[in-house]
Design goal:
By secondary structure, the protein is an alpha+beta fold. It folds into two domains: about 130 residues, Jelly Rolls, CATH 2.60.120; about 100 residues, Arc Repressor Mutant, subunit A (Orthogonal Bundle), CATH 1.10.10.60. The protein is about 45% helix and about 15% strand. It has eleven helices and seven strands. The strands form two sheets. The chain has a four-stranded antiparallel β-sheet, covered by helices on one side. The longest helix is centred in the C-terminal third of the chain and has 19 residues. The chain is globular, with a radius of gyration of 19 Å. The protein starts with 13 loop residues before the first strand and ends in an 11-residue tail after the last helix.
C-alpha cells in the first residue's frame, strides 16, 4: 500500500497485520490505530474505518484477513459470533514473536510457493487468526456478547431500503429516491439508516457494489470492462479508481492474485 483508502466498512470482521515495509495506521471508531511490527489492527463487522498512509514515499505490505463467520464457526463453534459488531473490544492487539514468525511463513507460502495446497493455507490461516484474537479477552466471554447482541429486528423502513439497494446494486445510488420510497425525509432517512446499520447509506451502497465486484472478479472470467459497465460505471477507469480506493489494488491485479491460488481442476481429488 502506498496511498490512503476511502472510509468504508465490511459485513465481516477482519484483522490487519503488517507483513513488511513501513509502519502505517488505520482510523477505526474515530481512533488512530497504528499498524506496526508489534501491533495488529482489529476491525469489527460494519465498523467504519479508513487507511492512513503516513509515509507517502514508502510502501507497506499488509496482510488483511477477512473472517467469514460461518467458516470460523465450522472450525471452532465458540467463534460463531465473529460477525458481532463488538466482537473485538479494542482496535489494536500486540503481536507475539511467535505470531510474527507465523505471519512470515504465511506470506512466504502465498508469494513464493509454486503450488499452494488450499488445506495447508486454511490451516495456517486458522492458526494465525487464533493466535491474534486470543489476545482479546472479549472473544472468549460469549455471554457478554450474547447479552449485547443487537436486536434482530430493524426498523422496517430501513429493512425495506436495504432490500431495494440489494435488488439493484448496479444502479447509481440515489439517497433522495430511496428516502422517498420509504416515506422519510432525506435527513430522517440518513439518521435512521446510520442508527440501524452503524454506517451511512452511501457507505452501505458502496459495500454492496464492492462486494459484487469482488464476487464477479473471483467467480467468473468476464472482462473487467464488462463488469465495470454492469456495475454502473461509465468508464473502466472509474471502476478501477473505485476498487483501488477500497482495496488498494486494481481489479485486474486482484483477479491475478486470486487466480494464482485457485486450485487446478480436479486437484480436490488429490488433497
Amino acid at each position: 500500500m502506498n496511498a490512503p483508502l476511502v472510509g468504508h466498512a465490511h459485513h465481516h470482521c477482519h484483522i490487519l497485520i503488517k507483513a513488511g515495509g513501513a509502519d502505517s495506521a488505520f482510523r477505526v471508531r474515530g481512533e488512530h490505530a497504528p499498524l506496526t511490527d508489534d501491533l495488529a489492527v482489529l476491525v469489527n463487522a460494519w465498523e467504519h474505518h479508513s487507511y492512513e498512509h503516513t509515509k507517502p514515499n514508502e510502501r507497506t505490505l499488509i496482510l488483511a484477513l477477512y473472517i467469514e463467520p460461518a467458516w470460523l464457526a465450522e472450525i471452532q463453534r465458540s467463534l460463531a459470533l465473529s460477525g458481532h459488531p463488538r466482537f473485538f473490544p479494542q482496535t489494536t492487539v500486540p503481536l507475539k514473536s511467535a505470531t510474527r514468525k507465523n505471519v512470515e511463513e504465511f506470506v512466504l507460502e502465498l508469494w513464493w510457493a509454486d503450488e499452494v495446497s488450499p488445506s495447508r493455507l486454511e490451516h495456517l490461516l486458522f492458526e494465525l487468526i487464533i493466535e491474534v484474537i486470543e489476545k482479546c479477552t472479549g472473544w472468549r466471554d460469549m455471554s457478554s456478547l450474547l447479552k449485547s447482541r443487537p436486536p434482530a429486528s430493524m426498523d422496517p423502513r430501513i429493512r425495506q431500503a436495504i432490500a431495494l439497494m440489494k435488488q439493484d446494486v448496479m444502479r447509481e445510488f440515489d439517497i433522495d429516491a430511496l428516502a422517498q420510497k420509504t416515506g422519510l425525509s432525506r435527513a430522517h432517512f440518513f439518521t435512521l439508516f446510520q442508527r440501524n446499520t452503524q454506517v451511512t447509506p452511501q457507505v452501505y451502497a458502496n459495500v454492496l457494489r464492492f462486494e459484487m465486484a469482488v464476487k464477479r472478479l473471483t467467480q467468473g472470467r468476464e472482462a473487467v470492462g464488462d463488469i465495470a459497465h454492469d456495475l454502473g460505471f461509465s468508464e473502466p477507469s472509474h471502476f478501477a479508481r473505485f476498487f483501488r480506493a477500497h482495496l488498494g489494488i486494481t481489479p485486474s491485479d486482484y483477479r491475478r492474485a486470486v487466480n494464482l491460488f485457485e486450485p487446478p481442476p480436479g486437484s480436490e481429488e488429490l488433497l
